[in-house]
Specification:
Strand content: under 5%
Helix content: over 70%
Largest sheet: none
């Protein structure tokens, strides 16, 4: 019973990540959100090629998209 709800939540999060960015940045945001990673964590672990400012613009866009999808 709970696995269907979990699947739906996972799908919503993945949709929001895709709506955030079509490229690798969307995947990085998804990784950061699902693992609780900060920009610094992502920069160290994945050597992301964007500035902190750009990263957080897309990070906030992810949560905006998630809010829109959920409603």
């Amino acid at each position: 019973k709970g696995s269907g709800k979990t699947k739906k939540l996972v799908d919503l999060v993945q949709q929001a990540a895709k709506a955030t960015s079509d490229d690798e940045l969307g995947e990085w945001i998804l990784t950061a959100v699902t693992n609780g990673y900060s920009y610094d964590d992502m920069a160290l672990k994945y050597n992301i090629g964007v500035s902190r400012k750009t990263y957080y613009i897309y990070y906030r866009k992810f949560f905006w998209a998630l809010s829109k999808i959920r409603n």
